[in-house]
From TrEMBL:
<keyword id="KW-0315">Glutamine amidotransferase</keyword>
<dbReference type="InterPro" id="IPR017926">
    <property type="entry name" value="GATASE"/>
</dbReference>
<protein>
    <submittedName>
        <fullName>Glutamine amidotransferase</fullName>
    </submittedName>
</protein>
<dbReference type="Pfam" id="PF00117">
    <property type="entry name" value="GATase"/>
</dbReference>
<feature type="domain" description="Glutamine amidotransferase">
    <location>
        <begin position="49"/>
        <end position="192"/>
    </location>
</feature>
<dbReference type="InterPro" id="IPR044992">
    <property type="entry name" value="ChyE-like"/>
</dbReference>
<dbReference type="InterPro" id="IPR029062">
    <property type="entry name" value="Class_I_gatase-like"/>
</dbReference>
Amino acid sequence: MKPFVLLATRAEDLPADEEYELFLRYSGLEPEQLRRVRLESGPMPALDLDELSGIFVGGGPFNASDPLEKKSAVQRRVEAEFADLLDEVVARDFPFLGACYGIGTLGAHQGARIDSTHREPISVVPVTLSEAGACDPLLAGMPRTFGAFVGHKEAISQLPASATLLASSPGCPVQMFRVGTHVYATQFHPELDVDGITTRIHAYADHGYFGAGELELTLAAVRAAPVAHTGGILRRFVERYAR
């Protein structure tokens, strides 16, 4: 089987390593089948799409909607690399699944409006499939409404005509979309479980996702409702595209 690749941007080793382990667990891949590239530590290597089965993008601290002057040199480099990669991915309709930061990269590439209007605190939210989502093979077998982990400072407020809306939540109209047939992005985190999001809550406690003194409330929020179905999205992505 040709490997998949996980493009990651987390600088903190503990959540970065745990993210990789979670992608392995829920995708069903072995380490030799999922190559990890930590983009925060160096330039994106040349990726020969003919030698890959598909691409995952994990979450991270970058916000696509931040003014250019607020973006670090690393973020500007990563965004330029993603723009070049997505030119080829979208043109070839190559299997791609971006989670959280991945929705910002694909959304920005396609000309979506991204701002802070629909930011969501770290929590579990009910995500509901659209008519197109209910028919999408990556979401086969999912309940029409399911719980998912979220936590983001920006979101897509308007999709371009090139995108198909697949899922929404009460506070965020674009939780998942598709471009073409094989290029996907989610605002929620399909790779997370309670332990994983707990690690991130502690790791990013001073990054503005919640206020001072709200740590315990945030930890309680991610235990308020079950999350049982989202990991299957990763497994179905692999089942569909492994070659």
